[in-house]
Amino acid sequence: MIVTTARKQVERLKEEAMSYITPLNGTFIDRNDRSIEDFYLAFGDQPLLVVAKDKLILHKQQGAEPFYYHPNVAFLRYKQWRRSGYDPFLAATELHPGDTFIDATLGMGADATMAQLAVGQKGQVIGLEANAYIAFIVSHGLANWREGDDLFIDALRRINVTKTDSLSFLKKSESKSVDVVYFDPMFDVRLHSPGIAGLKQFASYQSLTATMVEEAKRVARKKVVLKNHTKSDLFATLGFSVEKRANASFQYGVIKQ
């Protein structure tokens, strides 16, 4: 990976960029006012991380959408939840203050954010992300995002991002050690939101398996929840019960313990 800075405020950003070299096993290259295209010409198809004033921007290949952290739909969902007291994800997971929740497919962390809001300061949300670049950028974003009220920002800060694949993590977890385990497999996502197009280039597309579900059932005290496309056959194949929401693109399947 190549690490560089934005064109503006180079000297201020250079120290920050240099600090990312070791955790990302990267190489720092001075920007020298070069364009992103210039970097591709000089260094080929290596991932390129640009350290900007308020975010990290990851480029994979020329012409492709970059990946960067953004709360995505989380803040809109948060405001709607505060007004109405309802969110479909929270209705499916039935999280309570003090619960422990594993988001086994973290991605941009929107569901993890809603989960953290529900479990509160005494609860815990663990977000699992298999891709090291996504884990690093989302963790950085959660720690540094500043738009929103105190409750929303506090929720972002409390999410524990862990770079690992979900099966490995679940196998190492003690039985009945968390309340809810949640899966939202990336391979069925059809969203068009800030950062999502870039996310697709780096995300894991491993299919959810019966082994993963069995491990999740062993670890979860209350339930295992799966979000997937309405027409997905994973719900029936893997034993999830679905209370279908009318006219919804996605449904939530539940295995109660």
TrEMBL record:
GO biological process, one term: methylation
Pfam families tied to this protein: SAM_MT
GO molecular function: methyltransferase activity
Keywords, sorted A to Z: Methyltransferase, Transferase
Top-level division of the source organism's lineage: Bacteria
EC number in record: 2.1.1.-
Keyword presence, Chaperone: no
Official protein name in the record: Class I SAM-dependent methyltransferase
Keyword Cytoplasm: no
